Amino acid sequence: MLEVSPVRAFSDNYLWLIRAPADRSCAVVVDPGDAAPVERELEHQGLSLRAVLVTHHHPDHVGGVQALAARHDAPVYGPARERVPCEYEPLEDGDVVDLADLALEFRVLDVPGHTAGHIAYAGHGAVFCGDTLFSAGCGRLFEGTPSQMLDSLDRLAALPDETLVYCAHEYTLSNLRFAAAVEPGNGVVLEALEEVRALRERDAVTLPSTIGRERGINPFLRCREPTVRGAAERHAGRTLDRPADVFAVIRSWKDGFR
Ligand code: ZN
Ligand code: FE
After folding, report:
1. Ligand 2 centroid – CA 82 distance (Å)
2. Of 46, 209, 221, 223, which is least surrounded by CB within 10 A?
3. For 255, phi and psi rounded to 5 degrees?
4. Ligand nearest 60 Cα, by number?
5. Residue 63 has what DSSP assignment?
6. Where is 250: in which H helix or E strand?
7. Please, what is the average pLDDT of the chain?
8. Which residues pair with 29 in a beta bridge?
9. Which ligand is nearest to the CA of 142?
10. For residue 141, how far is the Cα from the chain centroid?
11. Residues with catalytic annotation?
12. Cα–ligand 2 centroid distance for 234 (angstroms)
């Protein structure tokens, strides 16, 4: 299993630091929105940075890329269909990031919806999915359509149940509050809510999740469940025939949920 540690940044971002299986003094960082906390953690753990992986172009994911890449002379990988503010290796769906000397290998999945060119990195029983899939939630639709985002979430949901899900924000508690509003009778959601509330009370990290867990608690992965569809129909006041319509209603319901 990969050794991954969270680096906290801004109010609720996690910049994930992956330790290289082949050389425990080396690491790769995912979505470094800020260089300073990454530098501190590298120093704290005595690691040298060997590569930077980027999921999408938002500033809280790329803000530290240039400084880190320059200082550590590390290659940067990112989505071919978006702009990363430095020289980088553009990746498309199906590409493989092969960091052979570190014994790290990730397959690239196109997961548009939050942004138009958003990608995820899957490998070693884990997926780094940026702002596409959150625990019990999903990213807002800034550049994509509901059906695009649903397709992207379906791709992630098709990964093996035990896949560890490393998302880029600590939104789990507020997401679960919403999930409980959508499915008040879902015992798995209510149990997760209690568990996560306790974790957040002591400021603990609620990630990684797993794909299997998400399939049980995440309303956005559960658009085809009659309970979720029914809740969306009641909220919208009309019949919703397609899963993408259910998704669209749930997504806009969540946008206004407090
Ligand atoms: Zn984002
Ligand atoms: Fe973000």
Report:
1. 15
2. 46
3. -55, -30
4. 2
5. T
6. helix 243-255
7. 98
8. 17, 52
9. 1
10. 14
11. 56, 58, 60-61, 114, 131, 169
12. 31
Q: CATH code at 235?
A: 3.60.15.10
Which of 217, 119, 149 lies closest to 227, judged by CA? 217
- Give me the number of domains the chain comprises: 1
Q: Which helix (H) or strand (E) holds 196?
A: helix 187-201
* Ligand nearest to the Cα of 13, by number: 2
Tokens of 41: 């953690």
- Ligand 1 centroid from CA 168, angstroms: 8
Tokens of 155: 């791709």
Give 237 Cα–ligand 1 centroid separation in angstroms.
31
Query: By residue range, what is the domain housing residue 180?
Result: 3-255
Element (H, E) at 231: helix 226-236
User: pLDDT digits over 55-99, tens only?
Assistant: 999 999 999 999 999 999 999 999 999 999 999 999 999 999 999
Q: How many residues does the chain have?
A: 258
Contact yes or no for 134/106 (Cβ under 8 A):
no
Task: Identify the pLDDT of residue 258.
Answer: 86
pLDDT at residue 166 greater than cutoff 90: yes
